[in-house]
């Protein structure tokens, strides 16, 4: 029980002791430079400035004590050892093996996993080279120009985000499309933009049973058949990524065209596996290998760096501080990079599906808040939408600013403006603006002064990378994966299952049958009314 740990109590008391302290006073002190030196870290090509947080050296020391008391070192070692840390599903969580070198010793159930990983990597390389090189063609012998990834959640968000982030790389040769929603609009609009003779579909699903993906795969299949591709030629247009060979076969995809992964890879941690096939097709295998190398560099840092100098641990524990001791219920991710615009959506699944839990490993309730609401979008757009609330709203929202120091695509003057705004937001949040400063700025209208005051003392991290490269992106993703894991350890929850997605799926099945005309079943009055309205509109009443 995390709340029973000594450090938990100590942190509560410590919070009472420092809650009125102002970050701007710390920065105005003569030794402020020391604060930055003390509260910054470099790892795997990333620089983290966490000086603008409401923490003192003692806060950090207590947070590290909490991590230690929660058994972080042991739990981290268990994860790297391939133990079944996903206890409810009796599985390891060994995504680090997917980005490891072939000679690494990762094992699951006593068996080495690297040979199988390496074999799939080779197949991904070979297949992608044939598609990109034009040797793998559609049924009519035409070159593949468009690839559609059909998948949802972890089978969509990761590869979609990576392909977006690295779209500036020169190796981009194919047009990638991602379709996730069961709303037919998404697939129909995508199909209207591509030519079946030139299109390859990846059906990407760990289970190969997911409603959305299977519905989209079925409709894509019909589209090919309706557009002149013969049934026995479909194999030129469909490949599968899955752990479920039987379901792949049953759908009609030859297992020879299936890229395998394993049940010890959680969906939201799977972009490093064959789920990354779309990335390899888009960017080429070498870029994917660099992505893996970046993730691997962060794994090595996370595995070996002492807790206080460990970037995922420090970021995780700052999150714990705000969530559990300062009462902050949301956290914002603001990448100042259009390339990274999909990172917040990826992180929502990573954090909220992993740590949005209320019971501990042993099934007892967690008597502490777990995952905050994670949200955000690319800067500077957010500044003109919701940053008002972050600066002056009644809730305090910790922000992670992420920025590449050099632009993926340069236009004169733009990047300095972008970075200036990023740094200015963090400075404004920390420093705020007093009534005296407003007046000194020459405000004409005295009645407005209080509206122009910023309380400040609002926390943020700033995470910098030199460029958005496959390597830095890999490190960034792995950083947040491990940060998520560490928080799960503190809350003593299983970060690798997702039972909370099941009930809605279960209830949707009979409702779908009712919408399609089956006899209505008893529901609550509200749901009954909604179903009746839909049946009337669909003509199934
Ligand atoms: O419903 C949630 C979920 O199971 C996610 O955890 C997963 O990433 C997503 O659905 C897709 O699952 P699959 O890859 O099996 O289609």
UniProtKB/TrEMBL annotation:
Gene3D superfamilies: 1.10.1390.10, Glucose-6-phosphate isomerase like protein, domain 1. The active site is at 353 (proton donor), 384, 505. Keywords: Cytoplasm, Gluconeogenesis, Glycolysis, Isomerase. One of its GO terms (molecular function) is isomerase activity. Belongs to the GPI family. NCBIfam families: PRK00179.1. This is Glucose-6-phosphate isomerase. It comes from Cupriavidus malaysiensis. The gene is pgi.
């Amino acid at each position: 029980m995390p709340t029973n740990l000594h450090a938990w109590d100590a942190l509560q008391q410590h919070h009472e002791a420092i809650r009125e302290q102002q970050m701007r006073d710390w920065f105005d002190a003569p030794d402020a430079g020391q604060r930055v030196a003390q509260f910054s870290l470099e790892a795997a090509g990333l620089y983290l400035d966490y000086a603008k947080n409401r923490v003192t050296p003692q806060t950090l020391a207590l947070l590290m004590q909490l991590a230690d008391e929660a058994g972080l070192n042991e739990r981290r070692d268990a994860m790297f050892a391939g133990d079944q840390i996903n206890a409810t599903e009796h599985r390891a969580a060994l995504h680090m093996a997917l980005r490891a070198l072939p000679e690494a010793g990762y094992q699951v159930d006593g068996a080495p996993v690297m040979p199988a990983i390496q074999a799939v990597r080779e197949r991904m390389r070979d297949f992608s080279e044939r598609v990109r090189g034009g040797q793998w063609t559609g049924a009519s012998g035409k070159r593949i120009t468009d690839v559609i990834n059909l998948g949802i959640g972890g089978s969509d968000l990761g590869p979609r985000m990576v392909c977006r982030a690295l779209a500036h790389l020169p190796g981009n040769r194919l047009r990638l499309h991602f379709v996730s929603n069961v709303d037919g609009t998404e697939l129909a609009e995508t199909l209207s933009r591509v030519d079946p003779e030139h299109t390859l579909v990846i059906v990407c699903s760990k289970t190969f049973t997911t409603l959305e993906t299977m519905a989209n795969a079925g409709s894509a299949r019909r589209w090919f058949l309706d557009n002149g591709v013969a049934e026995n030629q479909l194999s030129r247009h469909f490949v599968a990524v899955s752990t479920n060979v039987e379901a792949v076969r049953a759908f009609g995809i030859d297992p020879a065209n299936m890229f395998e992964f394993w049940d010890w890879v959680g969906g939201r941690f799977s972009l490093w596996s064959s789920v990354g096939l779309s990335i390899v097709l888009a960017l080429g295998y070498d870029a994917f290998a660099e992505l893996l190398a970046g993730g691997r560099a962060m794994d090595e840092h996370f595995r070996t760096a002492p807790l206080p100098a460990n970037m995922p641990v420090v970021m995780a524990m700052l999150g714990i501080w705000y969530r559990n001791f300062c009462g902050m219920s949301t956290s914002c991710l603001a990448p100042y990079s259009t390339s990274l615009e999909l990172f917040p959506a990826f992180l929502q699944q990573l954090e909220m599906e992993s740590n949005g839990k209320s019971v501990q490993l042993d099934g007892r309730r967690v008597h502490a808040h777990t995952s905050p609401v994670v949200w955000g979008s690319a800067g500077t757009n957010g500044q003109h939408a919701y940053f008002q609330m972050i600066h002056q709203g009644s809730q305090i929202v910790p922000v992670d600013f992420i920025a590449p120091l050099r632009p993926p695509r340069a236009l004169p003057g733009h990047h300095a403006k972008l970075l200036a705004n990023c740094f200015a937001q963090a400075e404004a949040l920390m420093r705020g603006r007093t009534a005296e400063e407003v007046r000194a700025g020459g405000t004409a209208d005295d009645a407005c002064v209080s509206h122009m005051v910023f309380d400040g003392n609002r926390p943020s991290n700033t995470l910098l990378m030199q460029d958005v490269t496959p390597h830095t992106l890999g490190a960034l993703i792995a950083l947040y994966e491990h940060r998520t894991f560490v928080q799960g350890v503190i809350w003593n929850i299983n970060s690798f299952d997702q039972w909370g997605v099941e009930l809605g799926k279960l209830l949707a099945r009979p409702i779908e049958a009712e919408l399609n005309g089956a006899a209505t079943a008893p529901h609550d009055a509200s749901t009954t009314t909604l179903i009746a309205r839909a049946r009337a509109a669909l003509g199934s009443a």
